[in-house]
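Action item from last week, closing it out:
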Amino acid sequence: MTREARGPKEGDFITIKSYKHDGSLHRTWRDTMVLKTSENALIGVNDHTLVTEDDGRRWVTREPAIVYFHKHYWFNIVAMIRDNGVSYYCNLASPYVLDKEALKYIDYDLDVKVFPDGEKRLLDVDEYEDFSQRWQYGEATDRILKANVLTLVDWINHHKGPFSQAYVDLWYQRYQELLRRSNDQ
């Protein structure tokens, strides 16, 4: 079995590409370190990762962030590890696909931000409405996304998965171990 058939393994670096519903490239993250892959999920970390916007602007992420992608849920989660605690940025998005080029998903504009004190904010509702009409997301997509917002809020409220401090600590510690190991070689 080739590496592509197996997918990336712990410590490998991948590219992440988000697209808009019309197929246009939205944003690219270069060199996300893979921490774990399973049949349905991928966990990685961005730390001073180069990000390229659709208009060519480039910037580098400021702090380490654990990223969580799932093949069945219509969201992905970014846990940003900051001095004042963990902040979350959750993208309502299609389940991911992974090919030899990149991990890919469609960004559906709606986002949920969770602050270290637990405050939640639904962001970009106007943008979602505009793009929904422009690209005709359709009732089925709208229903799926709204159901996934409810699932996401339930995860947040119950500190499930990436919203658990133990989860963030575990994967950040694993990332640090992998960094030390690569620096020792």
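Closing note: The CA atoms of residues 40 and 69 lie 8 Å apart.
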